[in-house]
Design brief:
Blueprint (H helix, E strand, L loop, with lengths): L7 H10 L6 E4 L11 H17 L5 E3 L2 H14 L5 E3 L4 H7 L4 E6 L1 H5 L1 H10 L4 E6 L1 H9 L5 H10 L1 H6 L3 E4 L8 H7 L5 E3 L2 H14 L14 E4 L3 H12 L5 E7 L6 E7 L1
Parallel strand pairs: 1-8, 2-3, 4-5, 4-6, 6-7, 8-9
Antiparallel strand pairs: 9-10
Helix pairs in contact: 1-11, 2-3, 8-10
The structure holds D-glutamic acid (DGL).
The site of D-glutamic acid has 17 residues, from α3.
């Protein structure tokens, strides 16, 4: 799950690594951006979607959103102790291992920077480093709007990253899954030698390991089935976003509706 399209950057890696698994992608575009909400709000919404997906029989749940993971992962693990969860966190660890000049940039949402898990990461990995941070709600919206990119979009991203560019950070952590879809703009805004860290491939490997560990992996002869995509937002715009970002039209698309603010989700119209 994610608030919006960001988690598709994780989904495509999981699909690539584990083509035999059945995948359901649910996002909550009606409540986007999560990063501008209170931690309680994010926790409540994330729990609602998780509860719905567990009701649909999922065997493992990926919170493909740094914001939702930071606010809710601990709570989810306590609430659903039987369910294996994979969450996301800004990749400070690899950045700290790889930096040569001890200057790291992190872009994420305001809620991610405010959360306890981020503070713990900083404590653990950022000692002796100069860490430049920037909450970027505007980039979440830009990623949701999607390509084609124009000169203003490039300028906006360059302005946001100007301080990190000037500081010559040699690692830039994408601490929000949406930002993977802005890679060309981010690369253009940073010096060529800056490594840009997208955690999605590592998350997919973690999913594979956890499935093995829990003896939950689908048999290799299982025939691949199309991903089920769901959103609480508009179906037609979501269809277009999936086609543009993943390069093929969704075969199975469904709208989810909140029963009432904060409670479980119900399936509603589906479209093929
Ligand atoms: N994709 C989400 C993340 O990784 C955040 C987007 C939002 O603010 O809704 O943090």
């Amino acid at each position: 799950m994610d608030s919006g399209i960001g988690g598709l950057s994780v989904l495509r890696q999981i699909e690539h690594l584990l083509p035999h698994e059945r995948l359901i992608y649910a996002c909550d575009q009606i409540h986007l951006p999560y990063g501008e909400r209170s931690l309680e709000d994010i926790q409540r919404l994330t729990e609602g979607i998780t509860r719905y997906l567990i009701g649909r029989g999922v065997k493992l749940m990926v919170i493909a959103c740094n914001t939702a993971s930071g606010a809710a992962l601990h709570h989810l693990r306590q609430t659903f102790p039987q369910m294996p969860f994979v969450g996301l966190e800004p990749a400070l660890k690899p950045a700290a291992e790889q930096t040569r000049n001890y200057k790291i940039g992190v872009i994420a949402t305001a809620a991610t920077f405010r959360g306890q898990p981020y503070a713990r990461l900083m404590e653990k990995y950022a000692a002796g480093m100069e860490v430049f941070t920037r909450p970027c709600p505007e980039l979440v919206l830009l990623a949701e709007r999607g390509a084609p990119w124009n000169a203003d979009d490039y300028r906006q991203v360059a302005d946001i990253l100007a301080e990190m560019h000037q500081a010559q950070v040699d690692q830039l952590v994408l601490g929000c899954t949406h930002f993977a879809f802005l890679l060309p703009l981010i690369q253009a805004a940073m010096p060529a030698q800056t490594a840009i860290i997208d955690p999605a491939p590592a998350v997919a490997r973690r999913v594979a390991t956890l499935l093995q560990d829990h003896a939950l992996a689908a048999p290799l002869h299982a025939s691949p089935s199309p991903v089920e995509y769901m959103t609480t937002g508009g179906l037609e715009s979501f269809r277009l976003q999936i086609s543009t970002l993943l390069g093929s039209a969704p075969q199975h698309l469904q709208r989810l509706q909140w029963q009432k603010e904060g409670s479980m989700l119900l399936d509603s119209e589906s479209a093929r």
